[in-house]
Amino acid sequence: MEVKTKSLLDNMIGVGDMVLLEPLSEDSFIENLRKRFDHNEIYTYIGSVVISMNPYKSMLIYSPEKVEEYRNRNFYELSPHIYALADEAYRSLRDQDKDQCILITGESGAGKTEASKLVMSYVAAVCGKGQEVNKVKEQLLQSNPVLEAFGNAKTVRNDNSSRFGKYMDIEFDFKGDPLGGVISNYLLEKSRVVKQPRGERNFHIFYQLLSGASDDTLKKLKLERDFSKYNYLSLDSAVVNGLDDATSFRTVRNAMQIVGFMEDEVQSVLELVAAVLKLGNIEFKPESRCNGTDESRVKDKNDLKEMCELLGIEQSVLERAFSYRTVEAKLEKVSTTLNVAQAYYARDALAKNLYSRLFSWIVTRINESIKAQAKTRHKVMGVLDIYGFEIFDDNSFEQFIINYCNEKLQQIFIELTLREEQEEYIREGIEWTNIEYFNNAIICDLIENHQNGILAMLDEECLRPGTVTDETFLDKLNTVCAEHQHFESRSSKNSKFLTDHSLPHSCFRIQHYAGKVLYRVEGFVDKNNDLLYRDLSQAMYKANHSLIKHLFPEGNPAKVNLKRPPTAGFQFKASVGTLMRNLQTKNPNYIRCIKPNDKKAPHIFTESLVCHQVRYLGLMENVRVRRAGYAFRQAYEPCLERYKMLCKRTWPHWRGPAREGVEMLMADLQVPAEEFSYGRSKIFIRNPRTLFFLEERRRQCLQDLATLIQKIYRGWKCRTHFLLLKKSQIVVAAWYRRYAQEKKYLKIKRATTVVQSYTRGWQARKLLRELKHQKRCKEAVTTIAAYWHGTQVRREYRKFFRANAGKKIYNFTIQRIMQKYFLGLKSTLPSMSPIDKNWPVRPYIFLDGVHTELRRIFHLWRCKKYRSRFTEEKKAVYEEKLEASELFKDKKALYPSSVSQPFKGDYLEISKNPKYQKLNSSVDEKVLLADVVNKINRANGKGATRILLLTKKNVVLADQKTGQVKASVALPDLTSVSVSTQNDGFFALRLKEGSASAVKGDFLLSSEHLIETITKLHHIGSAGSDGEQLNVDIADEFLVQFKQDKVCVKFIQGAPKNGNGVSCKRKNNRLLEVSVPASA
Ligand SMILES: Nc1ncnc2c1ncn2[C@@H]1O[C@H](COP(=O)(O)OP(=O)(O)O)[C@@H](O)[C@H]1O
Ligand SMILES: [Mg+2]
What we know:
By secondary structure, this protein is an alpha+beta fold. Helix content is 47%, strand content 16%. The strands form 8 sheets. Strands 23-22-21-20-26-25-24-27 form an 8-stranded mixed β-sheet, covered by helices on one side. It has a 7-stranded mixed β-sheet with strand order 1-2-16-3-12-6-7, sandwiched between helices. Strands 28-29-31-30 form a 4-stranded mixed β-sheet, with no helix packed on it. The chain is elongated. Residues 1-7 have low confidence and may be disordered. Adenosine-5'-diphosphate (ADP) binds at residues 54-56, 58-59, 106, 108-114, 158-162, 388, 593.
């Protein structure tokens, strides 16, 4: 089986793993680094250690695709990359449950911080996903910009140099999902707050705040944008190429928000930052006192005032704290004045403390946010990014501390990789030639030894009563450490350095593992003491500002503590000790950063510089040990447990000692003997490739095993399913059969009933038929018997009857009936009135014709009788009535009412009434009709009463009162009479044109006896000698000649206006309208 190591070995520039370097020498080592660096290969391995060269340019090797490429791949499978190390660490954390730490070492500017960020971003990219997890990741990642803003600064070596040590534990759950983290910070370089070396800057946040904050915010913080206004900001390199402070400020604000800072917390933090700037601007002037000493006074109180306003401090309290100092002895309090220098010292101490405490608070606050919520057991991955080894021209207490820390890290590296490894070989009884390496434990001892270490000496000096200065401290060192191989000082008793002019008197030199460093003792005591006058901390505690108060708990007067606080050196030593112990419990992964040049420039490879780093990092020794030793070791039990599936004999259980099992396994797999050795408790595998081979086989085997498990599980599942189905099927079948049988039974039952009923029916019908037959037979017999008897009887009685008696009886009967009919008719005859409609009912149908004929005859007879009773006059009257009927029946609505009225003719009794004697005498003829009429006025339609007389020859109109004749018209002059169809009494007498009477025009009259009058007129007219008929026109519209005009008389049915009468109105000269009330 060939292991996939193609990428590491193929197309390789130089060698990717120094272990493979041939021949191995320092030159070839450096050459290999250079070659790879020139080809942009910044990572190289020494076994599992990653060497990282700072490229000083952005590389395209951190894309998400790269992350995917390195994800879940073996360490040596692909070309060297920091991701491979991160992946390895993450996977062994997740899969093997081993806590990890990633130790990143190197000089300042070598790329440690960048490396730590790359590791974190890789882990964030490959670990679990989900809303909660992503929030945790985001918070962990966003803690970086916040810490960098407050803890990083531009130095000559690095534009973004971390001025504090940082160790971050990322906590994961059993699945490998991040739960949270804990950040520890180590010794912030706080002296930078008040003073920065040439070419360097203060912490980024100051510049970011001034450039990036809005005008409004600055106003609130009482700040101005101009850097030059602030004493604490060095102007040398206020603006750094490639750093955009304003944008960074927004990034930081955003990051703070993501991490979980509340808005008011951010505000408080910014207020403190502003206060530090203000503090720097406070200046002092001497004021002579009577006893001849100078006392300091604040020069311009404006900044002091503004600062006090920002922090809510009472100005006078702070002002006093800058002028006086209260020293508390056991029983008494002594107040001494401060001179100007002391005041400045106090001011700077306050600024430094304020800032460093703020920084620590921020770290605590971040920890609060990112702390893991769940209380389950965590797996931990620690990432250590601590300040690198520093050698300046002028090194002080800070460098001493930093370099001490680096010594300790080197120590742990040596412990874990070199010494531990060699000791293990010996312990395990593996054949081994010892490799020489420099163990820096001795240097660590020089610094940290409890009794005579440099830090112990310093503490001792600081705590000692009497005058203590940096010089007395150096003297002490000179006596105590003179003999130490790594300690050099001009005045030590070691005569070697008496003439060494490179070693000034006020300095001492330590031969660190990474080189000699000259420390100037000036400031050591002060910085170690880290003294803040109690008056100042008390002033701070009194502040009306929650954060400030919180930062200076020792200022609480209730908790006055006369004991001195632990010194800076002591604190640092303690925290480094804790860190080391912590690291030792974890599986280390090393990233060793190398700086290719001093110019922060890409493509430049300064050989001497790299060589120096390679040497002090002990990389050569590292390679040698690696080459001589074994790449991998594992105790027999876990090894057997892990690989036992690769051999039939050991799978699934090996009964016997684990070592024999492993031997069996190796023999079975035919691993060449030189590839591994058996130690006492562990197997040592020389080459990673062998391990990959094992891992690959295991992976395949696991796949097969998984398939097997899957197969069995699937089989089991299918079988269970099948059995369930079968059981269900039986139940279903049973139910179905029952149902089918029931159905079949019911069907048969139904059929049986039908058959049965048919049979019964058939039997019943048969019986019925028989019974009926019997009954008919019986009846027939009876009938036959009856007829027979009848015949018998008739035959017997025939001789007693005569042959034609029947006809006689018939005729007799008819006679009787007719007699009875006529007699009955006589008694029931109706009355003699011709209009009586009654007639008796017919008694027999056969009399129908006779009965009708009798009725006709009787009617004719009684009519004749009736007529024979009439006189001549009465006859004339009836003739007249008949004529009226012919003229008007069904033509004029007035007619029916006239039928019952007798035609009297002379209504005025003209011959008898003396009033009309004269009139009567003026008419020669016999008056046929005399009546009062209304003559309609032709002009207005109003009526005037006149007497109308009708004789055989004339129609006469006379005045009613006087009886004087008004008009007399000879009947031949009348052409026609016009009446309406309606219920009115109007009539128009139309005169022949050209006749004598026609001069005045036609007459329009109205009479109460219209029907009689017209009938009489018509009768006389038709009986006239010339035989000309008098026409009677019946129409609702006719023309009347009035003098010259023809006027149309129109009858309308109108609603009566005044009573029931007929009204007549002349509408215009052509129309006369007569409205007649509608007949009821
Ligand atoms: N992998 C890298 N790719 C690109 N630039 C890098 C890389 N590592 C470091 N640098 C550059 O080097 C500078 C210093 O790196 P940094 O990690 O801050 O150093 P250290 O923390 O070791 O002092 C960074 O600001 C960056 O410009
Ligand atoms: Mg850094």
